[in-house]
Known about the structure:
Layout: E1 7-10, H1 16-23, H2 40-50, E2 58-64, E3 72-81, E4 91-98, H3 107-121, E5 127-133, H4 137-145, E6 149-160, E7 163-173
Bound molecules: coenzyme A.
Coenzyme A binds next to strand 4, helix 3, strand 5 and helix 4.
Amino acid sequence: MTSPPITIRRATTQDAAAFARIIGHPDVLPGLMQLPYATEERWKAMLTESQALGKLDLQLVAEWPSINGAARVVGTAGLHPAGTALRRRHVMTIGLAVAADAQGQGVGRALMQALCDYADQWGQVLRLELHVYADNARAIALYRSLGFVQEGLHRGYALRAGHYVDSLSMARLHPSPPGIAAWETA
Ligand SMILES: CC(C)(COP(=O)(O)OP(=O)(O)OC[C@H]1O[C@@H](n2cnc3c(N)ncnc32)[C@H](O)[C@@H]1OP(=O)(O)O)[C@@H](O)C(=O)NCCC(=O)NCCS
């Protein structure tokens, strides 16, 4: 079966309900650092803040066409500054979630590819960082295939559904950092 075509665009506050639906799903939430009982209003507040003019965050959504013509949001991905320290301005962190019924059909890869392209070609990013639970084989395989390498193992990193679980820290350095073109004289 062929997967539906994927469209990637920047998220807006109108996507808050989709964020709550996708990220709150019991098959998605345990892979993330989120908490249960999030609401559309909370996601709207997060999107309003992260998408405000001057903020450096990039929040993307992936859409599939639906039968009635309206697109359906099936995944979200975010690129966020690693902090406010001047000397870490070249670093950004990543978050990723795909709707439970859309997983395994290329949506995560398309979102990650878009984030990496933006970071490499537009975002002045030399280092991408992320944390992934050590038992999340699908996410780890995806990140490895895009050039992320494991840098650390964090024991008992976070409480997940009543158990402290390990995480891996992974990072990807810019494969070909941009330079300044040589000055051409006539
Ligand atoms: C992890 C997640 C984002 C991946 O997105 P996805 O759309 O399901 O992944 P894709 O279909 O794009 O597959 C990406 C790669 O995963 C790998 N993969 C797929 N299923 C796998 C499995 N069961 N085990 C191991 N690797 C697997 C494949 O290498 C695939 O690469 P391919 O394009 O060469 O086939 C998604 O499953 C998800 O949202 N999970 C819940 C939330 C989560 O864990 N987020 C990540 C937080 S760090």
